[in-house]
Write a structure and sequence with these properties.
single chain, alpha+beta, Heat Shock Protein 90, six-stranded antiparallel sheet, 16 strands
């Protein structure tokens, strides 16, 4: 019996040995599958983080270098400043290095990289020609258009490469998901086989093996279904516990990665919103205020300081300060001593931040210190800064240089008073991104301020010119009045009879004196318009009478020039609420221009009519017309058409400017229709008192 029992035991032992051997094999396969999946995931993650992401960053830096080069060249062509040209050279020098870095990662499509290189080199060749052209010259303007086309092609090529890299990263992520799903599915299958073997051997084996395996299987199913909080119960034999721990570790790692990604997404959204607020106004103070508030609130900082370098200084003092408890601090308050300028320049040149996590690192008296996560190995703060940090209770600090191109403008100083909240890499990364945006916005705001000051100077110059014209016009008016009076006395022969030659000479003097008087009146009117004292005194006026009177006044000049003058007006009055003298000036300017620019045998027609409750006043001629390319400039001050200048027809280019101003002051509008060589029609539309009226037309 004992021998039989031993044999049965051996048989059971053999079966159990086979079963447990199979189970051990399955556990080993599970571990190998998990390890293989982990290695595959690690390889994929390595490709993404160590090769694809740096390549994308280098590609973005290449685009930033190109944008900096284009902005600096535009600044040089606008201002002629050599500093802008130097900034362009510096940005240009970075481009080959960035292209080399992109190739060095060996993940980008060489054809896309080569295409991008060709486009950026084509743009740089045009930019070099821009650099040799004179600022604000016609050649520079022509090259600017070509440079814009080349730069757009470069941006397109850069975007194409970025899209390829993003697609590659997406494929890697999908591959990682596939590996994870396949690993989980294989592990589940192996666990199922193990459960079946355990049931076959014995109920004890089932209780010892099946229950933990079923628990692990359920956990895997819940994880696969999206229940990320599920965890496997670590029970049973050592191998099964190892599997459960591996599953739990994989789940926890997945949770950690999701949490990091979610935090990155939230911080990126905050950074975008803060960037929008920073760029809302082109004002330096607004940029500084929005930067302090947005960065401090978004990154959960206790203190934020924006430090700006002063020209010719050796330090970078605080320009704006913010604290979580007080908000923006009063101007001039200096909670932190200036940071040495050479430190800011050095970190900006190397593209690194200055991070000190923990009071020990922050208050150390010097020497290289590991600043904690995200630190780049900075030394302790200077004595004055240590004292200020201790007074504020700072525990963790990160200082990020800000600037544009190769120019370091200052630094962003972020601090926390909580040692348990050190600056993490993802926060430093977002802070660096925001600092770059602050640098660009601050640079743009400073340029805008410079342009605003230039505009103010130009306005002052324009005002001085207007004052000069007004003064000169007033000074000429008095002697001209005396000349005209004396001419009238001589023409009346109060001083004796005139010979025909003398009478002709007096006519010439009188005609030119009247012409000079009209010019002076135009200049005085223009001066009143520009100074804002041009007043329109409205009263009921019959436009029909004004048209007839103006036509009668201009008719002698028209007859002398062999030009036919026609009028078309309603038989009844056209009552307007207007300034009669100003409307008469409109008519005289339009009619005199029409007669002046119409050759012998031509026709000038003045029409007044009512259309839809509006008086339409038009003056047409069959004269030389206006070139189509110049018609949009017709109402500009002192503008004269090229064909009029070529024909040596006298004029000042002020008449139509005054006409448009008078019509606009009456609530109307002015239109021009002209064809070179066939004539011109100037139309003024004025509101009619009493609405639309139908009227018979009287033509003369």
């Amino acid at each position: 019996m004992r021998i039989a029992h031993l044999r049965r035991a051996d048989r059971v032992a053999g079966r159990l040995g086979l079963a447990f051997g199979l189970l051990a094999l399955l556990v080993a396969l599970c571990g190998a599958g998990a390890m293989t999946g982990a290695l595959l995931l690690e390889g994929i993650q390595h490709r993404i983080t160590d090769r694809l992401d740096p390549t994308e960053d280098d590609n973005l830096r290449l685009l930033d270098a190109g944008v900096s080069a284009q902005r600096s060249m535009r600044g040089y062509l606008i201002t002629g400043e050599q500093s802008e040209l130097a900034a362009f050279r510096a940005a240009r020098a970075r481009i080959p290095l960035l292209l080399s870095d992109i190739r060095a990662h060996d993940v980008a499509d060489e054809r896309a990289v080569a295409a991008q290189q060709r486009q950026v080199e084509a743009y740089l060749r045009v930019a070099e020609r821009q650099a040799r052209a004179a600022p604000r010259s016609a050649g520079a303007a022509a090259l600017t258009r070509e440079a814009s086309l080349r730069f757009n092609a470069f941006e397109h090529a850069n975007g194409t490469l970025t899209d390829q890299l993003t697609a590659d990263e997406q494929r890697q992520q999908e591959r990682a998901d596939t590996v994870t799903r396949a690993g989980l599915a294989g592990l589940g299958a192996l666990v199922a086989v193990a459960v079946a073997g355990a049931v076959y051997t014995s109920m004890r084996t089932t209780r010892a093996l099946t229950r933990p395996l079923l628990s692990t299987e359920r956990t895997l199913g819940r994880l696969a279904a999206g229940e990320h909080s599920a965890r496997a119960e670590v029970t049973g034999p050592r191998e099964i516990r190892a599997v459960a721990r591996s599953v739990n570790e994989l789940a926890e790692e997945a949770d950690r990665l999701r949490a990091v990604e979610e935090e990155r997404r939230q911080l990126s959204g905050m950074a975008r919103e803060a960037g929008i607020r920073i760029r809302a106004k082109l004002d330096v103070d607004h940029v500084l205020d929005a930067a302090c508030t947005g960065v401090g609130e978004g990154l959960d900082a206790d203190h934020v300081f924006v430090l700006l370098a002063e020209e010719g200084g050796g330090t970078v003092p605080v320009a704006r300060a913010w604290s979580a408890c007080r908000g923006l601090l009063p101007a001039g308050e200096q909670p932190i001593p200036p940071v040495p300028l050479e430190v800011v320049h050095d970190h900006y040149r190397r593209g690194t931040s200055w991070c000190l996590n923990g009071p020990a690192a922050l208050l150390s008296e010097g020497g290289p210190l590991p600043g904690g996560p995200g630190s780049f190995g900075a030394s302790g703060l200077p004595p004055q800064a240590r004292a200020a940090a201790k007074k504020l209770g700072l525990a963790c600090v990160v200082v990020i240089p800000i600037g544009v191109g190769e120019q370091a403008m200052g630094a962003l100083f972020l601090a926390r008073t909580r040692p348990e909240r050190p600056w993490r890499p993802v926060e430093i990364e977002i802070a660096e991104s925001m600092a770059a945006g602050v640098g660009r916005a601050l640079h743009t705001a400073l340029l805008y301020e410079q342009e605003s000051r230039l505009v103010e100077k130009l306005r002052a110059l324009d005002q001085a010119k207007s004052d000069f014209l007004s003064t000169v016009s007033h000074e000429l008016r008095t002697p001209l009045t005396s000349i005209v009076g004396c001419v009238e006395l001589l023409q009346d022969e109060d001083t004796g009879p005139l010979t025909p030659t003398q009478a002709h000479m007096l006519d010439v003097v009188d005609r030119n004196a009247q012409r000079l008087r009209a010019l002076i009146e135009d200049l005085l009117t223009l001066s009143r318009i520009e100074s804002g004292v041009f007043i329109t005194r409205k009263a009921p006026v019959d436009l029909r009478r004004l048209v007839v009177a103006a036509a009668d006044a201009i008719r002698p000049s028209a007859e002398a020039a062999s030009v036919s003058l026609r009028t078309r007006c309603p038989q009844q009055p056209l009552i307007l609420e207007a300034d009669g003298e100003q409307l008469d000036r409109v008519l005289m300017n339009l009619l005199s221009n029409a007669v002046k620019f119409t050759p012998d045998g031509g026709t000038v027609t003045v029409c007044a009519d009512v259309q839809d409750g509006t008086v339409v006043l038009s003056v047409s001629d069959t004269g030389i017309g206006i070139p189509a390319a110049e018609q949009d400039k017709l109402f500009q001050r002192f503008f004269r058409a090229s064909n009029a200048a070529d024909a040596a027809i006298p004029g000042t280019g002020l008449g139509l400017t005054i006409v448009r101003t008078i019509v606009a002051n009456h609530g109307g509008g002015t239109e021009v229709h002209s064809e070179e060589g066939r004539g011109t029609t100037i139309t003024a539309r004025l509101p009619l008192v009493g609405g639309d009226r139908s009227a018979d037309t009287d033509t003369t």
